[in-house]
Design brief:
The protein is mainly alpha-helical and 255 residues long. The chain has a domain at 3-26 and 100-250. 82% of the residues lie in helices and 0% in strands. α6 packs across α8 (211-225) and α7 (200-209) crosses α8.
Length: 255
Amino acid sequence: MNVFEQFGLGVRSYIKALSLVVNNGLWIYFIYPLVIYVLLFFIGFELIHYLSDGLESFILGYVDSENAGSWLSFLKGFLHFFLSIGLKIIFFLIYSTVSKYVVLILMSPLMAALSEKTETIVTGKKYPFDATQFAKDVMRGILLALRNMFIQLALVLVSCIIVCIPVIGWLCPLFLLILSYYFYGFSMLDYVNERKKLDVTKSVGYMRAHKGIAIGNGFVFSVLFNIPFIGVVTATVLSPVAGCLAVLEKENVLK
């Protein structure tokens, strides 16, 4: 199976995921992400306004136009207009990247449980509840989300430096987009690898060999996540289910 076939598998698994959630009464899991999203929505936008307005005031504080000529007054007016819009856009882009990982971290317990429940429904294999193991699964999910977030943010900063370079710089946005899909899908598929007792190094190797599935899963997750309200709630429930189903189908457990 080449990377494009893997990508297709990662995407179409969402259709099976939706069917599995509906037919097995897992709709109750939508309540938790709904509460989380509402809280993050208000906190996030308040934070964007607070940081952008604070930084704008700090920068404009160095431009004293009260005793200056008209040109400096014009400059301050221009800076005010530019900063009031530009800073909000910059902080929003940072927030849109970080918020997905914040959701992954906060939703880690639910996603671990959903992935395990999906495998039980499909294969009949039951995993006796082990509080210690469950805590390890959740912590691993959180640490991977943090790892991927910092890698992605670092690459965003590097891209801001090279974006003006012809050709290479122009391809940066596309590269970052695909990379973000990969990292989101990585988080969803890793819950299955954790149950297989694969350490992080082996899980990374698995993801590289099946990068198409991870990218396909992360692509749908990202598209859904960018749909206000209902998309975020749907993405956080369907993505770990779809990830588990894709892995099971790849291993010929699910047809």
